[in-house]
Write a structure and sequence with these properties.
Layout (H helix, E strand, L loop, with lengths): L1 E4 L26 H13 L6 H4 L4 E5 L4 E6 L11 E5 L7 E3 L11 E7 L6 H11 L3 E6 L6 H6 L4 E4 L4 H11 L4 E4 L4 E3 L3 H8 L7 E8 L4 H17 L9 E3 H6 L10 H9 L6 E9 L2 H6 L1 H16 L4 H5 L8
């Protein structure tokens, strides 16, 4: 099943026990000298509080060499080193990660992004690059037998490239089997994540009661019809507990496998899995956003495509076979 491997580890710092919450405040870069004083004071005092050096809720940073910086924040104290120690890439001014060294703060949550693809040569590069900038620890592309340049383009970028039988469910399950993250985020190849969105997942899942969720959509087309679609899809997740695949479903790895993965059906694998999961854990909607290609709505018309989706779900609930319904749902490349 495994195809070309171009590197499966994200270009991130390897501090033991660290990582994980986004602090998208670029102002931390201007306060590096203050953090240096805090770190020196903390070390000189044998681990005593450096609270007075930085002040409640302040943020600062020190350069650790190369092109990256180490950041510290005083958001809460326990009498010793403050709970949150923040790390960031200098090339990502908006990104900071919280350390949990010494048993303080939040547990590290690694996120693997899995991208099923079929004839997505024009879009796969953007999906991969944006997945890394969103904060992924691992990016996996699972090709379902493309006959265009999808595999070639993916192989040129940093990702784990796998080959699978066609079918989004089978492709996503194949990616999940190879994923190393505690959290699996399934991303359609014609979608992409805004910078820092994976950090929202890490922060949310610091609550062990939360098992899965998805993102608010931003459909890349102008017009009130698309804004209504975004609102309606968000409403469906909040009030019915049913995110769909183009909302960027994320789920804890253990929960995903306990639910026997995506059912390997030709259509609506996301709906079926989400119905199973909501019985034990209600999904959460994150701000994201996830950027969504409008091509299907533009090709078929917003109203027509929406009514078709509703009809497919209704027909499935009435017992129509998914094989029969799949024949009514044309692939994007046909």
């Amino acid at each position: 099943m495994v195809g070309h491997v171009r590197g499966s580890v994200a270009p991130r710092m390897d501090y033991s026990g660290e990582a994980v919450i986004a602090s998208r405040r670029s102002s931390v870069y201007s306060q590096s000298a203050r953090l240096l004083r805090v770190a020196q004071a903390w070390q000189a005092n044998g681990g005593q509080s450096a609270r007075n050096d930085v002040g409640e809720g302040k943020t600062a940073g020190i350069t650790t060499g190369g092109s990256r910086s180490l950041f510290y924040t005083s958001s809460g104290h326990t009498g010793g080193l403050p709970r949150a120690i923040m790390f960031a890439y200098a090339r990502r001014p908006a990104l900071a990660l919280i350390s949990v060294a010494g048993g303080c703060g939040l547990p590290c949550v690694n996120v693997s992004i899995i991208i099923p693809a079929l004839n997505e040569a024009d879009r796969i590069g953007t999906a991969i690059e944006r997945a890394w900038s969103a904060g992924a620890d691992q990016v996996i592309v699972v090709d379902g037998g493309s006959d265009d340049a999808t595999c070639h383009n993916a192989a040129e970028l940093q990702c784990l490239l796998l080959n699978s039988q066609p079918g989004r469910a089978m492709q996503q399950n194949a990616g999940a089997q190879q994923a190393t993250g505690e959290v699996l985020l399934f991303l359609h190849a014609d979608n992409w994540l805004a910078e820092g969105t994976v950090e929202q997942v890490r922060e949310l899942l610091s609550d062990t009661a939360v098992q899965h969720g998805a993102f608010r959509q931003s459909i890349q087309a102008a017009g009130v019809r698309y804004r209504l679609l975004e609102w309606g899809n968000g409403w469906r997740l909040r009030w019915r507990g049913l995110p769909y695949g183009d909302q960027g479903i994320f789920v804890r790895r253990a929960t995903f496998f306990a639910a026997d993965c995506f059912p390997e059906v030709p259509l609506m694998e996301d709906l079926i899995l989400m119905r199973d999961l909501r019985a034990s854990s209600w999904p959460r909607l994150l701000a994201g956003p996830i950027r969504v290609d409008p091509r299907r709505w533009q090709r078929h018309g917003v109203l027509r495509q929406t009514l078709r989706n509703w009809w497919l779900v209704r027909s499935y609930d009435r017992g129509v076979s998914l094989d029969r319904l799949a024949s009514c749902y044309r692939r994007h490349d046909r």
